[in-house]
UniProtKB/TrEMBL annotation:
GO terms for cellular component: plasma membrane. It catalyses: an all-trans-polyprenyl diphosphate + 1,4-dihydroxy-2-naphthoate + H(+) = a 2-demethylmenaquinol + CO2 + diphosphate. Keywords: Cell membrane, Membrane, Menaquinone biosynthesis, Transferase, Transmembrane, Transmembrane helix. The keyword Repressor does not apply. Conversion of 1,4-dihydroxy-2-naphthoate (DHNA) to demethylmenaquinone (DMK). InterPro entries: MenA, UbiA_prenyltransferase, UbiA_sf, UBIAD1. This is 1,4-dihydroxy-2-naphthoate octaprenyltransferase. It is found in: Cell membrane; Membrane. The keyword Transmembrane helix applies. Belongs to the MenA family. Type 1 subfamily. Its EC number is 2.5.1.74. The chain crosses the membrane at residues 30-48, 80-98, 104-120, 127-150, 162-181, 202-224. It comes from Candidatus Segetimicrobium genomatis. HAMAP family: MenA_1 (MF_01937).
């Protein structure tokens, strides 16, 4: 399931719920259910990714990205796929609790999120194989996850939560961009046409830089237009982290270095930016109270 990656789905739920808290519309029980449902969908997507990348020949015993349980004979492929469906089923059960409280829009959010997690590498036209993976991650693990968590609390959507979602969407996509940069040559050799494989390594590095810059620019613009709290400026403390990971992504070609100092460092940047944003909204809520 690769639980180390779960912060990518936890952080948007935390931020979306913090925005609701700032508006004095926070329900701890609904937060807990939404949090667990987001993780269950993420776990299911990871397992489905392992299964379909294996059966399509994209992952081998030498591949660095997957968990390796199939390639090294620790689990049968069908067992991993059943695990994915089990995680999606858990998310569905949790979703029923949210639907009972917030109505059919939660059903739509849940169905589309599960479908996106599955279709990323599953189905007749896997989105991650035709250059659409970045869009799926940006929309569903960034915008939808953050706004959906807010909707669970408030039964509505606001400009504030959408603005807060943009930096998270940009940074979670940046994680994928580094991942695809690392796997670019291997993916091309096996016919996996990620966006990075289509545009090449130089443009992929530019893509990464633009996403990181966009995350900070969105926060700065949100503060200047008074859409998000001034305390959000504390994300400036993460700029050295962003600069550090950019220095790695800009020049590094070793897959193991890109994994440890690129992918994981970008995931940490995503988490830290999200935590500072959540703190800013919680502080705003406490101040208003």
């Amino acid at each position: 399931m690769r639980p180390f990656s779960f912060t990518a789905s936890m952080t948007p739920v935390l931020v979306g719920s913090a925005v609701a808290f700032a508006q004095r519309q926070f329900h701890p029980g609904l937060f807990a259910v939404a949090f667990m449902a987001a993780v269950a969908i993420h776990a299911g997507a990871n397992l489905a990714n392992d299964y379909y990348d294996h059966v399509r020949g994209a992952d081998t015993p030498e591949s660095i990205g997957p968990s390796g349980v199939i390639q090294h004979g620790l689990l049968r492929p069908r067992t991993v796929l059943r695990g994915a469906f089990a995680c999606f089923a858990v998310a569905g059960i949790l979703g029923l609790l949210l639907i009972a409280s917030r109505g059919w829009p939660i059903l739509l959010i849940g169905v589309l999120s599960v479908a996106a997690g599955y279709a990323y590498t599953g189905g007749p036209i896997p989105l991650g194989y035709v250059g659409l993976g970045d869009g799926v991650v940006f929309v569903f693990m960034g915008l939808v996850a953050t706004a959906g968590a807010y909707y669970v609390q408030t039964a509505t959507i606001s400009k504030t939560v959408l603005w807060a979602a943009v930096p998270l969407a940009a940074l979670v996509d940046a994680i994928l961009v580094v991942n695809n940069l690392r796997d670019l040559d291997e993916d091309r050799a096996r016919g996996k046409r990620t966006f990075a494989a289509l545009i090449g390594p130089a443009a992929t590095r530019v893509h990464f830089a633009l996403l990181v810059i966009a995350a900070y620019a969105a926060i700065a613009a949100g503060i200047l237009t008074r859409v998000i709290p001034p305390l959000s400026a504390l994300v400036i403390l993460t700029v050295p982290d962003g600069a550090r990971v950019w220095r790695v992504v800009k020049v590094e070609t070793d897959p193991r270095v890109l994994t440890s100092q690129g992918i994981r460092a970008t995931a940490q940047l995503h988490r830290r930016v999200g935590l500072w944003l959540a703190l800013a909204f919680v502080a705003a809520g406490l101040g208003a109270g």
